[in-house]
Amino acid sequence: MSGPELGLAISVFLACAVEAVEALTIVLAVGATRSWSSAFYGVGAATAALAAIVAALGPALTALPIDVLRLVVGGLLLVFGLQWLRKAILRGAGLKALHDESEIFREEAAAARAAGGARRGFDGYSFAIAFKGVLLEGLEDAFIVLTFGANQHRVGLAAAAAGVAIALVVVVGAAARAPLTRVPENTMKLAVGVMLSSFGMFWGAEGAGASWPGGDAALLAIVPVLALTALATIEVLRRTTAATTAAAPTDATPLTAADDELASAGLATREPV
After folding, report:
1. How many other CB atoms sit within 10 Å of the CB of residue 24?
2. Which of 63, 113, 164, 226 is most buried, taking the most CB atoms under 10 A from its CB?
3. Of 186, 206, 188, which is closest to residue 70 (Cα–Cα)?
4. Prediction pTM value
């Protein structure tokens, strides 16, 4: 397996594992609260829809001229990768709340209970929520499988990596029977963001007619440089936030004795700054 193929497999595996964890939380919530069988029907229907999308679009993408394919795929991967990277950096710096699977599970379970009692037999609510959750989370995985696989004409390898990731999450989730809260989602999202952005830059530049020194070996420099840049950005944001918080004024200015007397009489005019 070549370097780019290994990078493809790792990127697809991590991305699909992250999305599978989030989809698992939704399925567990509606299944445990309402109907397992209907939730599984929803999962099956969404999986079939995603497989059809990959099977239909994969050959169409690989039929494009290689330079056009690399330019389009590189641009799309760069857009998606930078989005993943931005969110991971903000979460790592403490400027955005971490993804809390336990809280999401509680919210989904509460919404399922509020929707009324589950019907005997087929439960439309469980089916719809499970279908929507798996489909929406899976669409991004399908996009990554298609773009990575089509660019190297290895859709099969990308699909296999996705299948292994999803199967692993399902097995662990079934054993735990609870949301996978210990999975380091933000670290994985940071890694996926770095990989998607790196491959996006690499393939996009090649599609535009540029050539990288060393060919595919240039990825061995692009990936670590981008990863170190992301980590450095997180550290800078952390320190800036800490310094800003430390320098921020207090919520209210101290009151003098005269202010206390006016306040006791209900005539205070000073307001907190």
Report:
1. 27
2. 226
3. 206
4. 0.76
